[in-house]
Write a sequence for this structure.
């Protein structure tokens, strides 16, 4: 798997966790603990590609659906864990960085989530970018405290946070971003290590 440096601790990028709904998307300060509110369905939970999803640059073409971004083995593994794919009640986003969220709203992207409202979840956006956009994303991640490193012909940046919710439930969460060729794989996770997950997506996409 990628062996990127990780930044441990609470940062302004990683905000409060909603254990009953995978994450909280509202802005909080680093000192605030996660709440237990359950999120409601929102447009962000729509797994369909954006209207520009059919556009491509030199490199990969954006897949039509989430099943196409995983190898059969990874897809089977996630399904066997009992994590539902694209539960509409999950509003967990692939990043809590405001600038990067703006990119995900405007660039060709496909959102995929695993899990139901609860204490375990993964959300990934596969996004088509050009060289200038990729460079800007990498700069934003590095300046935001992510540990970044060159891996497999691309860049992987990651960050991790451990804490305790208001209900005294320990949690671990983080983000991993991979940039290779014309693809950006942004993943946010809660209480679910990403062993081999991002690598599998890149290999399946041929990035």
């Amino acid at each position: 798997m990628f062996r990127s440096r990780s930044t441990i601790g609470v940062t302004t990028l990683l905000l409060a966790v909603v254990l009953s709904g995978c994450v909280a998307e509202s802005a909080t300060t680093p000192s605030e603990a996660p709440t237990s509110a359950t999120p409601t369905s929102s447009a962000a939970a729509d797994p369909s590609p954006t209207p520009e999803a059919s556009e491509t640059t030199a490199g990969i073409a954006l897949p039509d659906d989430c099943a196409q971004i995983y190898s059969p083995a990874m897809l089977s593994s996630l399904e066997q864990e009992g994590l539902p794919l694209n539960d509409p009640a999950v509003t967990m986003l692939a990043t809590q960085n405001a600038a990067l969220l703006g990119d995900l709203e405007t660039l060709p992207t496909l959102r995929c989530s695993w899990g139901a409202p609860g204490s375990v979840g993964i959300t990934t956006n596969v996004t088509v970018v050009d060289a200038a956009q990729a460079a800007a994303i990498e700069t934003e991640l590095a300046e935001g405290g992510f540990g970044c490193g060159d891996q497999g012909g691309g860049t992987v940046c990651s960050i991790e946070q451990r804490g305790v919710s208001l209900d005294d439930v320990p949690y671990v969460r983080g983000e991993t971003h991979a940039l290779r060729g014309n693809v950006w794989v942004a993943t946010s996770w809660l209480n679910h290590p990403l062993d081999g997950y991002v690598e599998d997506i890149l290999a399946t996409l041929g990035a």
In short: The chain is about 20% helix and 25% strand.
